[in-house]
Amino acid sequence: MKLNLLPTTVSKGKQAKSGIFLSALIAIVGAIVAIFVSTSSSKALATARQDYEDSRGPAEAAAAKAAEADTILNAPGSVALIRDARLAEAMDKHNDVYPDLYEGLKPYIPSFFRVNSMFATPAAPDSSTITLVGTIKTYQQYADLMLAFSRYPGLVSVGRAGYQTNDEIVPNLSPVDQLGTPHKPTDGPVPEDKLERLTYFQSQVQPQGYTGIGNFGSGTDSTRGAMPDYSLVTVTLTTTKNLMVPLPKSTLSSSGSTTSATGGGAGSGLPPGGPGGAGARGAGAGAPPSQDDTTTKTTGKGKKGSDDSGD
User: Fold this and answer.
1) Which of 111, 148, 220, 246 could be bridged to 90 by S-S, CB 3.0 to 4.6 A?
2) Alpha-carbon distances, residue 245 vs 119, 142, 277 (angstroms)
3) Helix or strand or coil: residue 217?
C-alpha cells in the first residue's frame, strides 16, 4: 500500500499556477481577436466610403440625363412622335389578330361540321363574337357541336340554331300501321298491308337528276348550302379575345395614347362585322332560325351550364 505523505498545499499550488497560465493565454487571444476585428471593420468602412464617392458622380450624371430625357419627351413634338410610333406599332400588331383567331379556332371545329363561312366581330376590349355557318346531318352531330366548341380556350358561351329535325321516328300504333314502322315526321305512317305499302312508296316523289338543292350541280362558284337530309346551322361563340381595332383618326386628333374602337365603322378600315375568315364569301347564308340553344361556360372556378335542349 502506497501512502500520499505530501501536504495538501503542494497540490493546490500547482492548480493555481495552471489557472494563471490559462487566464493569461485567454487574455492574449482575446486581444489579438479584438485588434483584428477593429482593423477589418475600419478597412471595410473606408472601402465603402470610397465606393460611395466613386459612384456618386455617375449617379448624379445619370439623374441629370434622365431629367433631360423627361424634358425632351414632354415637349409637344416628342409627345406627337411617341403617339404616332405607338399607333403604328398597334396597327402593325393588329394585322395578325384575325388570322391568329381563325387559325386557333380551326383545331376545335369537328370534322362532321362543313363550314361555309366564319367571321368574328369585337364586342368589347375583352370580348368578341365568332359566327360559323355550316352544315351537319344528324341531331347527334347537332348536340356534339356544343361539346366540341366548349373546349375552345377563352370561351364564355356557345349558341347554335337552325337544325331541322327530320330523323326517323317510331310512331304509335294506329289502325293503318299496327307494327310501328319507323318513318320520317314529314311522311305519313307506313301502311301494314303490302299493296297499300307499295302504293305508299310509289306515291312518294323521288328526285331525278340534279335538283339544284344547296347549289349542288349548278355549275357556278356560289356557296354550297345544305344537301338533302342535311341542315344549315349557325354556331355563335362568345370569347374573351380582344379584336379592338386602332383608329388612326381618333388617335391623331387626340393628345393621349392610342384609342380603339370595334371592328367596322368609320376609320377602322374593316368591313362591318370584321374581316371574313375561311369561307367568308358565304357569310350571309343561313340566318339563324327560331330554334336556338345556348350553353354558357364560365371562366375560373365557375361551372359550365348545361344545354337547355337536353342533349
Assistant:
1) 246
2) 15, 34, 16
3) coil
The CA distances from residue 133 to 12, 105, 223, 226, 285, in Å, are 110, 14, 11, 11, 7
Query: What is the residue type of 77?
Result: G
Cα end-to-end distance, the chain, whole Å? 110
- Predicted TM-score (pTM) of the model is 0.54
pLDDT above 90: residue 229: no
Half-sphere exposure at residue 124, Cβ-oriented, CA atoms within 13 angstroms: 5
Exposed e or buried b for every residue in 146-160, given b needs 16+ CB within 10 A? bebbbebebbbbbbb
Residue 216, C-alpha cell as written in the block: 349542288
Nearest-angstrom CA–CA distance, 55 and 238? 56
240/152 Cα distance (integer angstroms): 11
Q: Is 84 exposed, middle or buried (0-12, 13-18, 19+ CB in 10 A)?
A: middle
Rg of the chain over Cα atoms, rounded to whole angstroms, equals: 43
Q: What is the pLDDT of residues 39-59, one digit of tens each?
A: 888 888 888 888 888 888 888
User: What pLDDT does 14 receive?
Assistant: 65
Q: Which of 143, 134, 153, 118 is nearest to 239 (CA)?
A: 153
Three-state SS at 185:
coil
Contact between residue 165 and residue 137 where contact means Cβ atoms under 8 Å apart: no
The pLDDT mean for the chain works out to: 75
- Interatomic CA distance for residues 220 and 3, integer angstroms: 135
Asked if 203 contacts 191 with a C-beta cutoff of 8 angstroms, the reply is no
